[in-house]
Batch of 2 targets.
Target 1
Amino acid sequence: MAAPQIPNLNTLRGRTRLRGGLRGRGRGGFGPEDPQSEEDQDAARDKIIQQTDNDASSSRMSAVALGYLDDEYARAFIQGQIPRRYPIINRGTYVRTTAIDRLVDNFLCQEPSARKQIISLGAGSDTRFFRRKDVKNVVYHEIDFPSNTEQKISAIERTPLLLNALQSTLPSPADLQVSAEKTALASTTYNIHPLDLRTLASPELGGASSPPQLPNLDPTLPTLVLSECCLCYLPPEVTTSILQRVSNSVISPTAPLALIVYEPIRPYDSFGKTMISNLASRGIHLQTLKKYSSLDAQRLRLKHAGLVDGQGARDIESIYYGEGEEEWITPEERRRIEGLEWLDEVEEWRLLARHYCVAWGWRDGDGDGVFSKAWGGVAGSRTAAENADDEML
Amino acid sequence: MSDLDKAIAQLRACRPIPEIQVRELCYKARELLIEEGNVVGVNAPVTICGDIHGQFHDLMELFRVGGEVPDTNYLFMGDFVDRGFYSLESFLLLLCLKVRYPDRITLIRGNHESRQITTVYGFYDECLRKYGSANVWRYCCEVFDYLALGALVTGAATDLEPTEASFANAESEASQPSTLDDVEIEILNSNNQILNRFPRPKPSSDSEVGSPAPNRTGPAGTGASGSSGGSSANRSGAVLCVHGGLSPLIDSIDKIRLLDRKQEVPHEGAMCDLLWSDPDEIDGWGLSPRGAGFLFGADIVKRFNYINDLSLIARAHQLVMEGFKEMFDNTIVTVWSAPNYCYRCGNVAAILELSEDGSNAGYAPRSNGDVGRRQERQGLAERDATGEHAPGPGRRYRVFEAAPQDSRGMPAKKPVADYFL
C-alpha cells in the first residue's frame, strides 16, 4: 500500500545522482571516483526539475480520485497505483487548477469565433488542452524538456482516450504529426515542442541567437502564456529575458498577450525559509522566489514584462476563502470540497495556501481588448492584507 | 533490567519493539487506563505538553528540555501519532513510560487517537510498513479507546519561583521589573535562558507604576487580591487540560465524568467536541472549519471556568507558530509541542510547567514517586471558592526548536515535505 508520508519517491530519484556529482567535484582527485563534468551536474539539476512534473501529476491524480477535480485524462499520465496525498495538498491542487481554469476560460469564451493561442511553459503532463478540447478556434502549444515531451507523447499514443480526444479537434487524422524521435507533436490545434526554455533567453544568457521557430505558432494571435511552477526554477534574469523575447519576437509586439503564473511567494517568514531549505535539500531551487516575493512584486514584474494594461495577483488562501467581489469559489462549492475529506490541519492549510499565488497580467496591443474584457472584472489589485505583509520586510 | 526497561531503552533508540511485546504492553496499559476516570486528577508540579505527531526526535528534545520521566511529572494532551515518521516509536515509548511510572505521566486522548483519522494521516500505514500487518495498529487503537478525555491539575502555585536562569539577551533583561516577586509568566528557551518574564498585576496599594504588566485586569476583588493573605495563600484555581476544547453539551466537569469514553471517537457529541473544538474570537459557539467540534468564544470559556472554579484551560490541537498562545485574558492557553510541524511549518514548540504550591518555599522537588499527593488533594477541598475567578497558576513556558535530523545517532529518515511543484 502506498504510504502517504513518502509521496515523492520519484522526485528523489535524481537526487542520488546529483549528490554523487557534487561529491565528485568537491573531492576531485580523491579516490577512484570520476569527477563529473559541469555538464553532468547541470543535467542532474535539470533532471530534478523535470521530475517535479511527476509530483504535479501525482497530486492531480490524487485530487481527481477523491472527487476534488473532474479530469478523466489524469489517469493516463500515472503509472501504477493511484497516489494518495494529504487533504491539504489535494485542496491546494484543486484551488490552483480551479483558479487558473477560471482565468483561462474567461479568455477562451471571448468572441468564440476569433482565433486564440495558448502557450504552456513547462507543461509536463498537464491535461488542460484535453479538458478544453471542445473549445473551438484555439491553438495550444506546450513547451517542455524533450524527456518530458517524449513521455507525454508516448502516453498520448498508447491511450485511446487521449488520442481520440486530440483527433476529435482535427479536420483529419493525417493532420497530426509526430517527430521521428517522438519528442515533438504538431497539429493545427495542439502542439508539443521539445525545447529547453532557456534557449528562448537572450544569447548572452545562454539562449539561441534568434528565438527558435515553433511550428504552427502564430505571432499575431491573442496569446495567453501559462507558467505553473515553471519560470520560478530559472534564474531571475533568465526568466525576465525569456518573457521579453516571448513578448517582442515570439509573439508580435502589437499582438494581445497575457501571462498567468502560479508560484510560491513569501520566502521571508519561518514557513517560507523552511520551504526553501526543504526543497533545496531535494535539489530544487526556487530561484525567483526572493525577487518576486510578494503579490505586489509579482504585479510589478508583469508590468515590467510589458503587460501594461492590467495586473492582478492573489494568494491561494484568499482565492479559496474570498467572498463577494473576491469570490473565486462559491460557498456551495466550498462546502462540497470540505465534505470530501476531513481536513484536520486548518492552520497548516492556511499557512501553506498563503505561500502560493496566482498572478496575471496582460497587454491588449492592437487588438480590441480581449484580455481587458476577460479579466477586467477579476479582483486582483493590492489589498489591505498586503500592506501588513510588507511591514514584515 | 526488566523487560519493560529494556523496551524503554530500545524505543528510546527509536527502534520498534516486537509485535508480541506491543501486545503485552497494550494489554497492561489498558488495565491501567481503565482505572482512570474520564478526567484524571493530577497534582502540580506538572509539565503540560501538546501535540507530538510522531516527531520522535523532537520528543527526545522535549525530554531534554523538560527533564526525563520520572524526574519530571508529565501530562501529554494527545495527538501522539500521525503525520511524523515515528508515530509508532513515539506512542509506544510514552505508553511504556506510562506503564512503568503510572503516577509520573498522564496521557489523554487527542482527535488523532482514532481508527478513522489514523488511516488517513499515516499511523496505520506506518504500522503496516513496520510490522507487515495491521495487528499493532489494532492493539494501539484499543488503547486509544481507554485514554482519558481530560485532566484536572490542582495544587499549582500562583507565583513562579524565579529560576536562576540567566537572560538570553541584555535587551530582555533591561526590560524586566526590578523586583522578582510574583512572577506570573516566564518564558525560557531550550538552553534554560530567560526570554521574557511577566509579573502578576498587584493590588493598587502595592503597585509598581509603569511596570510592564500583562493585560490581565480581572474584575474587582479577583485576581491578585482574590487569594488575599499574601504569600501564604498561594493556591490557584484548578487547570483543566483537554485536547481540543469545550462542548455546548458540557457545562461542568462532572458532565465529562459521566461520558462513556471507551469507544472510537464519534463524529459528533460531547466526546467528539472535547477532542476537536477550538477557541476563536467569536461570541458564543460557531461552526468549526474542521468539520467536527465547534468554535467557542471568550464568554464561553469565562463562564465555564467560573462555574467549575478553574483558573485556566490548557489545550493543544492547533498549530501555533510561537509554541503557545494565551487567549481571552489568560483564561485558556494552546500548547503546541511539535516543532517544525510536518518538517515544513517552521514553528517552534513549547511545554508549560506549573510548579507546586508554595508550601515548601516554591521549589518543586522533582522527586520520583507520589509523595504529598494526598495532602494536596485535601488542600483542594478546602480551597477558597469565594473569589469570582481563581487566580491563575504561575506559568513557565519552555520554548524549543526541532532536533537536528541526525541527532544522537538515531535513525532518521530524511523527511520529504509536500509542496506544490
Note: The longest strand of chain A covers residues 257-264.
Target 2
Amino acid sequence: MSSTQDHPAKAKAFVANNERAHWHDKALWFVREKRDRMANSLPEWETLREVASEIKSHTIGKLADYLEQFEENATKLGVHVHWAKDDKEHNRIVLEILQSHDVKRVVKSKSMLTEECHLNPFLEKHDIEVIDTDLGERIVQLRDESPSHIVLPAIHIRKEEVSETFEEHLGTEHGNSDPKYLTEAARGHLREKFLGADAGITGVNFAIAETGGIVVCTNEGNADLGVSLPKLHIACMGIEKIIPRLNDLSVFLRLLARSATGQPITTYSSHFHGPLTGGEMHIVLLDNGRSDLMGSNEFRNSLKCIRCGACMNTCPVYRRSGGHSYSTTVPGPIGSILAPAMDSKANKSLPFACSLCGSCTDVCPVKIDLHHQLLTWRGELRKRGQLPIDKWLPMKVGSWVMRSPSLFAMVGSIGRFFLRNMPRWMIYHGLNSWGKQRELPEAPKKSFRQLYNEQQKNKPQAGDKNNE
Amino acid sequence: MSSKDNILKAIRNQFVESVPLPSLDQDWIDYEDRVAHFAETLESVGGAAHVVQSMEQVQEILSQVPQYADAKKCVSTVSGISANVDLNTIGDPHELEDIDFAVLQGQFAVAENGAVWITDRDVKHRVIYFIPQYLAFVVHCPGDAASAIVSNMYQAYEQIKLTGEAEFGAFISGPSKTADIEQSLVIGAHGARSLHVFLVENQTP
C-alpha cells in the first residue's frame, strides 16, 4: 500500500463496461435481498445486533486480558501460540513453522488476514506451493488476480471467464461454462491438492478466550478437509477476533451467515480446540496496526468488524465500482475506513467513495457507524493536509461566499448569467468535476431572493378587502 | 522486549472505556414445532430430515437411498447400521479418500438453522465428517424427536460441554455447497454431496 491509489480512476475503468457494471450491481443486490429475508425472519434481529456490538465493545476494552487468557487456555490444549507485531513478522513465523516441518505443499482456506500480509507470494518465494482451496479464491489465484470481495472473492468474474481459466489450468471442456460442471472440475482438482498437502493454513472467524478454541466458518468444507488430513494446522488471526465466552458464538454465528450470504448459518462452523490427535496446531496472533486503531475514539469501532461483507453488498458505490477499484485487501465501506488507518495518504480517495447514504450502517451486524466514520475520515484527511485542491478549495470558497449575503447575491447572478450564456466548452471542462457525468441544472433568470421580493411587493396587503 | 510484550503494552497504553459484558440470556426465538422447523430449514439448505422410531427404520430408509445402496465403501460409527469399512482399522486418514458413504453420530439438532452438532470424541479420524461423498447423521433422541432439537443457538451452546482436552466439534447444516461462480448455488463443493439426518425417537445413545 505504498503507492497512491485512486478510486475514481479505477472505478472509471470498471464502469466503462456498462453491461458488466450492471451485472455486478445486480449480483450483489441479490445477496443483499437474501440477507434482508434472513434478518426479517428473526424477531430478535435488532437485539442480536445490539448484543453483538456490546460484546465487541467490552472485548476491545479488555483486549489485553482476553488475549492472555486465550493464550493460556490454547496452550493448555496443546496449541503453540505466536505473536506478530506486523505482516513481516507474521510471514516469518509461518515460514519458520513450515520449514521446520519440511513442508513443501500447503492448502489454505479463506483468510483475508493472509491476503493482508501477502503470505502467498512470500511462501512461494521460499519454494512452498500454496493452494487456495475456497473455490472463488482458487479462481482468482489461477487468474493471478486478488479477491474483489471478502466473502465472494470471484464476484467480479463471469462464468465464461471461469470456463476459460479452468480450460487452461484444469483441462475442462472448451466453452462449457455450466457452474455445476466447473465446480465439479474444481472439486476433483482440489481433492488431489488436499490429499497431497503437508500442512493446512486457515483463517479464524472467532477465538474464544475462556476455552482457547477457534472457530472457522465455511460453506465448502475446505478448511476442514485442509486441516484434517495433514498433521500440521496453522491458524492466522488478527487480535480483534477474540470473544470472551463460548456462548458469545451463539450471537455471532446467528448474525454472520445471515448478514453475509443470507443463509441461516454456514454449512460448517468448526470449533478447533487443540490439534488433531498426533498432530500439531499453531495460532499466530497479528497486530499490524490494530492496537493503534484501538487508541482512536473515532475509528475504534471498526475493530468490531466480523468480515461478513454486508456493507459491500449494500453499498451503491461498491456495487457499481467493483472491489478492485479500492486497491485494498478489504474493499467497500469497512475497507475505506481500515485502509486510511494504515496509510491515509495512499488511501485518501477511499473515504470519498461513499454517498453517505448510510445503508452500510443499517445492515452492519455489529452496528459499526460506518458512514459516520467515513465522514470523519474526510475531515481527518483535510486536517492532515492530504486532500486534493479540487476537494477543499471549492468548499472554502463556498463557505466564504455564503457568509456574506451581498457577495452570495452577486456570485449568484454572475453564475446564472454564465450558465445561461456561455458556450458549453466554457462550462464543461476539466476543472468542473461535477459536470463529468452530470448535466448542470438549467439556470433560472431570477434568483429566489429576486422572486420573493417581487412577490412581496405585488402581494395584496392584508386587510385591503376582506378584513372589514 | 518480545512481540507479545510489545503488543500487550501497546494495547494497555490505549485508553478505552470499559463496557459491561451483556447477558446472553435474552428473549430469543422459540419454535412451537421444533421438528417441523428443523426439517424445513434443513431442506432449504439442501439436506433431508427423517423422524424414525428405530435403527431398523434408519437402515430401511438408507437402503432406498441410491448413494448408500450403491456405495462401494461405507463407514458407520453408529451401531445397527451396516458398513464395510471399519474406521478404527484405518491408520492414515488419507486412506479414507474413496469412502462413498458415511453414517455418523450427531449429538443434537438446531431448529433455527438446520444444523447438527458433531464431535470427534470416539471418532478416530475427524476427516470422516468431510471426506465421504455422501453423509448421514443419526441423532438419538431421549424422548420424541423434539427432545433432541433446540430452538436457537443460545440453547445449543448451553448444551455443549467441552472436556478441556483437545477436541473438535462442528455445527454442520446441510451438504457442502458453493455459489462462487456467478452466485449459482452448487451442492457438493469439497465435502459431502448430500446429507440425511435421522432423528431416532426414544433411544439412549
Note: Strands of chain A lie at 80-84, 105-108, 129-132, 199-202, 206-208, 213-218, 232-238, 242-243, 268-273, 280-286.
